[in-house]
Design goal:
This protein is mainly beta. 7% of the residues lie in helices and 42% in strands. It contains four helices and 32 strands. The strands form eight sheets. Strands 2, 3, 5, 6 and 7 form a five-stranded antiparallel sheet that branches. It has a five-stranded mixed sheet with strand order 19-18-21-22-24, with no helix packed on it. Strand 13 and strand 14 form a beta hairpin. The longest helix is centred in the first third of the chain and has 17 residues. The radius of gyration is 27 Å and the shape is globular.
Length: 491
């Protein structure tokens, strides 16, 4: 009996030695101050790896009315907690996730919601968000008659309630909202549209718009760009790539048997207008794949030869390394018991589209994966153009990234564009760097620039630019065009 009781005592002692309570505290005061949180109606929750990221499993309380919400939970010493706070119904904090390692002793985790502790004088600014949807429309992804485009961001809980409407230029959708804001506030947002098949979000990362002093003084601002930052074919010349795949003798990667017949061939990939389906290539996702043809139309050369083709337009704006696969009889009874994705996971076809390639032909054999450099004989009929006349705005990702102590940023100013997209030959250009709180830390460019391609160096070790490691944003602004990107300083 003594041995049993001794073992029981050890178990109890072990539990109290390794168990540790953690009080989570999140200050909602700034959110209330900015009108982003209603004390009477909005809840505060926490979700993380300790509750399966369940929105609603753990609700925080504020018994004393000081706008600091709390909850206490028990963990094991040494646990690494990954989590976010949530406000209202579905107002998740922005990335990155929070992390906390449980240690011994009375512990508490305390911070402001969204890490936002800036109490500032605010002003009303009317911001117009506009999105060019031409490429999505001509690619058949977005149907103006049935689909809806919305603006989603940290300012509306990433919901689909802010529906955008066509402007005088039918492929450009816009919405105007008044924000109570301040110079330096960072808006994180994306455009997304709903179809009968589901919701299509823009690619990661989130876009950012940083409110400037000029926006505050003028009381207005315009944010306009193309969906996924693409260049619409009606505005600028696309790269026209003819994909040809020989299906004669094709063998299924599912059962290693030849196909008895092939009546449908699809193409998926990682660069718009190509898209990847979700895991498992479900039947419904065949709608996201581009259909190839063997009937002498849509770029097919000879009908009925089991060599399938399609002409596909890629936006001409930057270097692209395209990763792709074909699929046979997707979703059909003849698909050999599963949806064919040509080969095992992690193996693909590849080829590069340089910025000046107007058209080319890529020839593949089903099931033979690998690289297609421009010198490969399967890349045929390559036609390029002189890019001396730049026809689009662009802001490239800084290189290197992360960086220390210097990095380079390349951008381009167009010779011509449609009026709503900035329509100018050069213009006043500003290129500024902001910290994670929206404070301006550097002005790299502030002058009139003629059309062309430019590169500027950002060096954090020179002059007053000695900055700490962390995330920074750089923003290009000229005419009616604004674009921001994120970079990381790592010392």
């Amino acid at each position: 009996m003594k041995k049993v009781w001794g073992l029981f005592s050890v178990l109890i002692l072990s539990f109290f030695t390794t168990a540790q309570t953690v009080e989570f505290q999140v200050d909602m005061g700034v959110q209330v101050y900015k009108g982003l949180f209603n004390l009477s109606t909005d809840a505060v929750k926490i979700a993380g790896n300790f509750n399966d990221w369940n929105n609603g499993a753990d609700v925080l309380t504020d018994f004393d009315g000081d706008t600091i919400y709390t909850i206490t939970k028990t963990f094991t010493i040494g646990d690494t907690l990954v989590f976010k706070f949530i406000k209202g119904t579905d107002g998740w904090e922005l990335d990155p996730n929070r992390e906390y390692v449980v240690t011994a002793g009375n512990t508490a985790y305390s911070d402001y919601f969204d890490r936002d502790d800036l109490y500032r004088l605010t002003s009303a600014v009317q911001i117009v968000f506009a999105c060019e949807m031409e490429y999505e429309i001509v690619s058949g992804y977005f149907n103006p008659a049935t689909d809806t485009l919305s603006l989603r961001g940290n300012f509306n809980g990433w919901s689909d309630q802010w529906v955008m409407i066509p402007t005088a230029e039918p492929t450009v959708y816009a919405i105007t909202k008044t924000f109570i804001t301040y110079a330096g506030e960072v808006f994180n947002y994306k455009f997304a549209y709903k179809t009968n098949s589901g919701t299509i979000w823009e690619n990661d990362p989130n876009s950012t718009f940083i409110v400037t002093d000029a926006d505050i003084s003028q009381g207005t601002a315009l944010v306009i760009r193309l969906f996924n930052y693409l260049i619409g074919p009606g505005a600028y010349p696309p790269s026209k790539i003819k994909f040809i795949v020989d299906m004669n003798g094709a063998v299924s990667s599912i059962n290693s048997q030849p196909f008895s017949s092939i009546t449908d061939v699809r193409l998926c990939g990682d660069k718009i207008p190509l898209r990847w389906p979700t895991s498992g290539w479900p039947n419904a996702d065949s709608l996201f794949a581009l259909k190839l043809f063997d009937d002498g139309t849509n770029g097919d050369i000879v009908a009925g030869d089991n060599i399938w083709s399609k002409d596909i337009k890629f936006p001409l704006n930057e270097y692209k390394r395209v990763q792709y696969k074909y699929s046979a009889n997707w979703g059909l009874p003849t698909n050999n018991g599963g949806n064919e994705n040509e080969s095992s996971s992690g193996t693909y076809h590849y080829f590069d589209i340089l910025p000046n390639i107007l058209r080319a032909t890529v020839v593949d054999t089903f099931g033979i994966m690998g690289e297609h450099p421009l010198t490969d004989p399967v890349i045929l009929d390559v036609e390029s153009e002189d890019l001396g006349l730049i026809s689009f705005y662009s802001l490239e990702q800084n290189y290197p990234n992360p960086f220390n102590p210097s990095t380079k940023i390349k951008y381009s100013i167009p010779h011509s564009a449609r009026p709503l997209l900035g329509g100018a030959r050069g213009g006043l250009v500003t290129l500024k760097v902001y910290d994670i709180l929206g404070n301006e830390v550097a002005e790299l460019v502030n002058e009139y620039k003629p059309a062309g391609v430019y590169e500027v160096e950002f060096n954090v070790s020179s002059g007053s630019r000695a900055l700490a490691s962390g995330i920074y944003f750089y923003q290009l602004k000229t005419n009616n065009f604004v674009i921001s990107k994120k970079m990381i300083l790592l010392k």
